[in-house]
Amino acid sequence: MKVNNIAYDCLTQYCEQGFGNKEIIHWIHKDLSESIYSYNYFESESNKIASVLHELSITRGDIISIFLPRSPILVSSFFGIIKLQAMSCILFSTLGEDALLDRLGNSQTKVLITKNSLLRKILAIKDDLPELKKILVTDIDEHQSDFILSLPELMESESSDFDYPHHLDSETPAFLQYTSGSTGKPKGALHVHGAIQDIIQSFKEILGVQSDDLYWCTADPAWITGLSYGVIAPLTTISQSIQFSGTYNAENWMNILKDKKVTIWYTAPTVLRMLMQEDEGIFDDIRSNHLKRIYSVGEPLNPEIYHWGKEIFSTEVYDNWFQSETGSIMIANRPGMEVKPGSMGKPRSGIQPFILDDEMQICPVGKQGHLTLKKGWASMFRTYFHKEDAYANKFRGEYYITGDLAYKDEDGYYWYVSRSDDVINTAGHLVGPFEVESALLEIEEIADAAVIGVDDPLLHKKIVAFIVLPDDVTWDKKLELKCRVYISNKVSTVATPSDFVVTDKIPKNQSGKILRRVLRAVYEGEDPGDVSTME
User: How many domains does the chain have?
Assistant: First the structure.
């Protein structure tokens, strides 16, 4: 089956149709200055990068990794790589040396695109990366050696035209997306050019961005949300979008929403939870703003966060669910359907989820089981790169095992419980951390929370709650009793934590997922290992 090259769907076709000069990305820099980019800009820059890589003998199937902060050159590099039918692998710029070595080694990266300030991390591990042939640095003007080259100098001599196949086999590899590594070594989920079909369909069906919208996805392109719905999808709609190079800052983010008149905002519960801790004065001008709706992904949207967001922003907040492995949104709340706070929503068109028990039998309505998907959708990952056994273990016949526990209610809504390996077996009762965390977050004095299970000689696993308190709250016996009683009443007596640990911050990765292995190590006084993927 033939499909369009992702780069053709996102850039080239619009230049051919006369939209080349259309402003498509408003890039807001760290200092809040703004640059505006057109289709022509990214088409030309990506052509030059494709030419550079071609001159370096990069061919179809080679891995080119991008180790850059969010920036226009990152976007251009991604499209330049896939025009050449090589595979792109975007890595978080915050990764440490060990995390980089895991990913670059597993992918057998041939060329790495990075910036000067990140170069030292690569040089520290380069002797363990025999496949790495060249490093292209985006912000130096001259080559440092035959190994470390100036990308601007190489691009200067290249034409802004590059002839590449606009149509190719749908199974042609396009990019690697590494899993979070929250429960083990990261794995590179391989996606193909055919994934563009599901990305476009889901963007239209769930987010409904129109040509007159201004859309802002806050996710980094190193995360599947940031790539699929921050870079690829909006470029296929001729709609304008925002990219922000800065990190989270409540005042700056609210000013962007207000001043730029953002109409559709795609973010994460972590962001909304952090905003909940801010002075409500920063939201005064938001309620009457142009914002039509908010979408949330990356971790479950707790009901209390949903209600807070809906009240503060005077608009609906839609939670949705997907994974690096699925490539596009699978289950979602969206316009036209009633929102049940705390629910993941319903599957989108063409997606068939099932709740199965340990024997792979369909669970009754309301019963918790393994969330699985009938395989075969276009954006489904094709393998874990060089970890085919791990890939095979994710399937049982026609079912993809997501690793999440959930249940379906009588109205067809899906409800997330926890990761299957996060479930706590305490005194023979199974307790999902999300339930306890949601209950804790409903308590006024708790700013953030995470729950883990640790070994206990009597209970098998005891429940431990890590909590973050606002600056004006002090932990004492009275507050502890309040938490115990509330959880006992809200969830169950068996879900009441045996221990509470007050901490300054809950460790999470870039997609907002709680790093429970880090919390377990902290609690047990052990080395937490590589924490460079933390937000």
Answer: 2
pLDDT digits (tens, 9 = 90+) for 2-41: 999 999 999 999 999 999 999 999 999 999 999 999 999 9
Cβ neighbours of 339 (radius 10 Å): 18
- CATH label of the domain that carries residue 498: 3.30.300.30
Whether 115 and 247 map to the same domain: the answer is yes
Structure-model confidence comparison of residues 299 and 329, the more confident one: 329
Closest CA to 158 of 61, 83, 236: 83
Q: Is pLDDT of 236 > 50?
A: yes
Q: Which structural domain, as residue segments, surrounds residue 200? A: 1-351
Cα separation, 137 vs 119, in Å, equals 8
pLDDT tens digits, 363-401: 999 999 999 999 999 999 999 999 999 999 999 999 999
Of 307, 324, 351, which residue is a domain's last?
Answer: 351
Indicate left, alpha or beta for 253 from its phi (over 0: left) and psi (-120 to 50: alpha).
Answer: alpha
Q: Average pLDDT in the 69-78 region?
A: 97
Same domain, 226 and 308: yes
Residues 191, 65, single domain; the answer is yes
DSSP sequence for 304-342: HHHHHHHHHHTSEEEEEE--TTT-S--EE--TTS---TT
pTM for the predicted model, two decimal places: 0.86
Last residue of a domain, one of 301, 327, 351: 351
- Residue pair 102/56 in contact (Cβ under 8 Å)? The answer is no
So what's the pLDDT on residue 512? 81
166 and 247 assigned to the same domain: yes
**Are 428 and 333 part of one and the same domain?**
no
Q: What is the CATH number of the domain that holds 116?
A: 3.40.50.12780
Among candidate residues 210, 241, 229, the one with its CA nearest the CA of residue 24: 241
Is 425's pLDDT higher than 70?
yes
Q: What angle do CA 141, 147, 150 make, to 5 degrees?
A: 15
Taking the C-alpha atoms of residue 344 and residue 406, their distance in angstroms, rounded to an integer, is 10
E strand or H helix that includes residue 426: strand 424-426
Better-predicted residue by pLDDT, 509 or 235: 235
β-strand pairing of 448-456 with 414-419: unpaired
